[in-house]
Amino acid sequence: MLKYTLKRLGSTVLVLFLASILVFFLTVHSGDPLADLRESNDPDAPFEMEQRIYHMQLDQPWYTRYWGWLQGVLGCFRLSCDFGTNREGQDLNPILMQAAEDSLRLVFIATIASIVLGILIGILTAIRQYSVFDYSVSFIVFLFFSLPTFWAAVLAKDYLAIYFNDWMQEGAEFSWGQLLLISGVMAVVVPLIAGGSAMRRLVTGAVVGLFSAGALWYFDSAQFALYPRVGALGVILLSFGLAVGLTALIAGLKNRQVLYTALTVAALSIVSYYATWNLLQDPPGGWFFLGALFVLTIVICVVIARTMGGYAKGQATSVAVLTGVLSSALILLDHFMYHWPNMMSLKPRPISTIGSHTRRFTEDDVTWWQVNLDLLTQLWIPTVILMLISLATYTRYTRSSMLEVARQDYIRTARAKGASERTVVLKHAFRNALIPLATIVAFDFAGLIGGTVVLERIFNWNGMGQLFVTALQQVDPAPVMGFMIITGFVAVLFNFFADILYAVLDPRIRV
Fold this sequence. Notes:
Elements: H1 2-28, H2 35-38, H3 45-56, H4 62-74, H5 92-127, H6 132-146, H7 149-169, H8 176-194, H9 198-221, H10 231-250, H11 256-275, H12 287-308, H13 313-338, H14 340-346, H15 368-406, H16 409-416, H17 421-459, H18 464-473, H19 477-505
Helix pairs in contact: 1-19, 5-15, 5-17, 5-19, 6-15, 7-15, 7-17, 8-9, 10-11, 10-13, 11-12, 11-13, 12-13, 15-17, 16-17, 17-18, 17-19, 18-19
């Protein structure tokens, strides 16, 4: 495995090196970087031309300029990266760091959301092949896939930002028409997913519709949109619900050792909710501190699972880690909800349509939670658009992979031996269906990076796409190379992870 990993890592470095040479050569020969100054009547134009020639080293051949750029980038191995300067002589390091942070944050969140939702929906449609649910999902996901990005962004600005902000300012109350519409949609959609006989669907729809109407009425009465909370009771109920549900899904409730392990993790999550409440009001170190707590959570879950799991340590570890991670996410969500009214006091219209962050939310008197709530609200619309575009790919590939695997002999053998449908779907079929999906994830991530160029233009983000387009128009190779090396590194890194995942899912690939 080590030899295979080093071999793939070497090919990754080679691809990046060759791509950098090609992109630099094409950029420097794509136009005249002095064209605007040659046509200018400004008396300072000759001086500005000399300055630009100096900053861009236009008096040197392209390969000398490339070698100087490469030496600066290779300094990253010594933790002293130097991406050069733009044509105005500004240091690119802070500019690239801010642009990369905005763009990659958007792409990562959209990718993870589309992968999770796409795989879940794909599995459900494969299990319910040729059902009304299958046909409905296929129609909807292909409709999203065919939407032009710029048109979808304009619609999202209206319905997910402007109208939402108006609704929040009007008191965030549902009208009876909206309440009945949402309840009716839930009463139709949930029975389609659940399936069963006509009577079962009718009963399920009635129960879901009444429950949805009651829940919306309660949230409306409690002004949940303005003062949201999961609360201690919600964390307790949902944590134990996750423990039981994940055990039933992965191991089965008859496996008591796994169930007791999951319940223990849920109980510890509730204890940590109270123990860390005051500490998380102003987390020291921000996301680094929360990341350390996240890693600590995984370690504790693994130790508990290996101690209490017995003969089912593998399943106990999966259930414990998922329970701990999702319970931690609930706790984090509750803290965000707790600080939502404070953020609304500074920003009564929370969803903005311009920029990646609100300028006044970078001041010292704004709390860490308010700053990150602002960043999340700014991410809301672009993330939804990117996610919906990618959702069709993951859904259809998961469905086709699951259906192809379901026809294999070992699946029929597993059913003939008496394995439960849960074991057949998750343990035997899903793992093998992941192999082609690993390739799609790697390529789709690179495609999403390209898609952000359009979205950043529409939402006026100063991200990697905006930086790339501006630099290309100005024939400025340093920002273009910065865009290429960062986005290219991430895209190639995803391909590298896909190669490693192949070897994990199918050991024959290592040979």
